[in-house]
Amino acid sequence: MKTATTAPLRRAPTPWLFIVPALLYMLLFFGYPLVRNVVMSFQDYTFSTYFTGEAPFNGLENWRAVFADDLFGASLWHTLVFTLGSLAGQFGIGMALAVFFSRRFPLSGIMRSLLLLPWLIPMVVAGTVWRRVLDQETGVLNESLQALHLTSSAVPWLSSPDHALLSVVLVNIWIGIPFNMVILYGGLQEIPAELREAAVLDGAGPLRGFFSVTLPMLRPVVTVVLVLGFMSTVKILDLILALTNGGPAHSTETLGTLTYQLSFLQLDFGQGAVVGNVLIVISMVFAVIYLRANRGGVAR
């Protein structure tokens, strides 16, 4: 009797031995930086702070300065356009390629492997290469377009405020397509062939079968792809710095590049922390929307 009651008590702490290291890791590498960033946004934290150790509390001064700057509003809009445009292009083309490669044909495996290359190249390297490709004077893209008589003059892809943001979005789409294709392709392989055959027997064409059978079955995979894509896209910094450095005329300035400009170029870490907190809030709002939508899907 005594042994039966004490054994569960001895085993009870065992799960915590596995949970505590993860909790400590989260608190140390996520919790502390988050709290420190929030505190910094209410301080006059500059480069001299590292020598004097003084960062006086200045209330909402950093927040007022950031929100009053027209560049913050423009950066917020550019972030929205860049993120949504990239997600739409990456997901749309990735889905089309996944459906295309789900039908076996000779050399399909080799072609899928080659399409993974943009995803494997470091972001800075990809940005540097594309900057040369899109160069107005010597870029291979303009030379090809003019040789094919598709344009009469060189297009200022990265040097014009009217084209720069679109060019950056297109490059990011090119980089993100392989990730979307691979994940969606894996999801398509898990859909039972019997469901598609049943849809065909019921008279559903390819388009109707895709939207009525394939896409609903892919919902969990699509959710994961969009969430991971959003989290990685909304904070992109290195690609934009390599392509345009936020220019020309701040036309490609996003919240990520604005944080970099304020913190590491202007050395105003307090205002940089404010923009960083805005990015965190945006990510949290998106995460809450995702969790509620996913919970509703499970409930149904």
Automatic annotation (TrEMBL):
Record flagged with keyword Cell membrane: yes
Keyword Zinc carried by entry: no
GO BP terms, alphabetized: transmembrane transport
Topology class, membrane: Multi-pass membrane protein
TM segment ranges: 16-35, 76-101, 113-130, 164-188, 209-231, 269-291
A Pfam family hit: BPD_transp_1
Superkingdom of source: Bacteria
UniProt GO cellular component terms: plasma membrane
Main localisation: membrane
InterPro entries, A to Z: MetI-like, MetI-like_sf
Gene3D superfamilies: MetI-like (1.10.3720.10)
Name under which the protein is recorded: ABC transporter permease
Species of provenance: Nocardiopsis sinuspersici
